[in-house]
Amino acid sequence: MKDKTKFTHIGRPKPGIATPVNLDVTRASTLLFAKSEDLYRTDIRGYGRHGSPLHDALEEAFNELENGAGTSLAPSGFAACTLAILSCVSAGDHLLVTDSIYGPTRNFCENFLKGLGVEAERYDPRIGAEIASFFKPNTIAIITESPGSLTFEIQDLPAIVKAAKTRDLKVIVDNTWSGGISYKPLNMGADISIHAATKYMGGHSDILFGAVISRTKDMAAKVAKTRKFLGYATSPDDAYQILRGFRTLHTRFEAQEKSAVQLADWLKTQSFVETVLHPALDCHPDHGLWKRDFTGGGCLFTVVMKPATTQQINAFIDGLELFGIGFSYGGFESVVIHCDPQLNRKFGDGFAGPLVRFGCGLEDIEDLKADIMQSAAQALNA
Q1: pLDDT > 80? residue 326
Q2: Is 235 helix (H, G, I), strand (E, B) or coil?
Q3: Does 248-379 match 3-244 at the fold level?
Q4: Contacts of 86 (CB under 8 A, 6+ apart)
Q5: Is 199 a catalytic residue?
Q6: Nearest alpha carbon to residue 200 among 309, 10, 331, 334
Q7: Which among 88, 104, 120, 123 has the fewest CB atoms less than 10 Å away?
Q8: Segment 92-140, tens digit of pLDDT
Q9: pLDDT of 141 strictly over 90
Q10: Could you tell me whether strands 94-98 and 139-145 are parallel, antiparallel, or unpaired per DSSP bridges?
């Protein structure tokens, strides 16, 4: 059965007489028991923080999405990142972090974890099998993100996994860009796949949510235990909205993915553009890896502009009428940001010009092109 069909039907109540299509939302903190002795059972939920049948259905959907053995839900995408990491490290460990990682995750690894006695070291996202040269006796895990959410390097995940398995290191992948639709890291041997469900699964830019999906039951149990230690809980109303988002996930993703490829291909021909960083384009340096490991793209990509001042780039972004200026992506609306203020890299030779990241929503592609052209004509003399 295709995923598009699965997500239309998964996690729904069994039909009876006048059965609602969707599961009920259970709002509860205190859960009551008929017998005192049942309060301390470990095979049942004892408190609202531990979820509800609706949460169970959502976890099942994420497991189906990534072919996972177990999912732990988190109150945001970033919370999912920190949950996955904290499930793998302890004091004295060495952690390898891709240089292209999401900024808050990098900050967490290099600052917060340092206070816990964990050493975080960055590696070149294009290192592939040579990542073994970074291994130390106390290396415990590798954190990847493919593609990088600002600069869009594709990592050779099978090579990284193969190197990691020689030392039994855990491989964690931030898989938000693909929505779990066009990239399946657990199938390639990664131990954990992370999603900021805030994005594609939410779909309307009004929910914060995250998910940590594990390849094995042992890893899933470890993440679930860590989640309980941290006290992470997710609202049943938010869980309901995320599960509802799964119903239309493929339809929305396909439309936004198509728009992104068309817009990226068009932008590479414009006079104010130096190059476009979208792995689906054959001009991308990692296009071959993308074709091998991915079945499609995502709604997000970055443009390297021709040399321009910060004032010009800001004026160009400010002049756009259909692209909202804001972080995140995967909602119904197109968004744009200037990347340069948050770039923090140790590897690579830099870029010829400023970086502007576009996230495509559900608007008509010709309208998006026209919006870019009118703003470029005013701000960049294009």
Answers
A1: yes
A2: coil
A3: no
A4: 226, 230
A5: yes
A6: 331
A7: 104
A8: 999 999 999 999 999 999 999 999 999 999 999 999 999 999 999 999 9
A9: yes
A10: parallel
| 80 half-sphere exposure, CB direction, 13 A CA radius | 28
Mean pLDDT of the chain: 96
From the candidates 99, 124, 156, 174, which is the catalytic residue?
Answer: 174
102 is a catalytic site residue: yes
Q: Quick check: is 349 catalytic? A: no
Q: Is pLDDT at 382 greater than 90 in this prediction? A: no
Domain ranges of the chain: 3-244, 248-379
Q: Which of 106, 122, 170, 199 is catalytic?
A: 199
Q: Point out the catalytic residue in the list 4, 6, 12, 49.
A: 49
- Examine the residue annotation and report whether 123 is marked as an active-site residue of this protein: no
Sign of CA dihedral 218, 229, 67, 48: positive
CATH of domain 248-379: 3.90.1150.10
> pTM for the complete prediction?
0.95
Assign domain 3-244 to a CATH class.
alpha beta
Which among 113, 85, 228 has a CA at the least distance from the CA of 170? 85
Average pLDDT rounded to a whole number, residues 167-190: 98
Q: Which of 93, 99, 102, 170 is catalytic?
A: 102
Interhelix angle 236-267/365-379, rounded to 10 degrees, is: 60
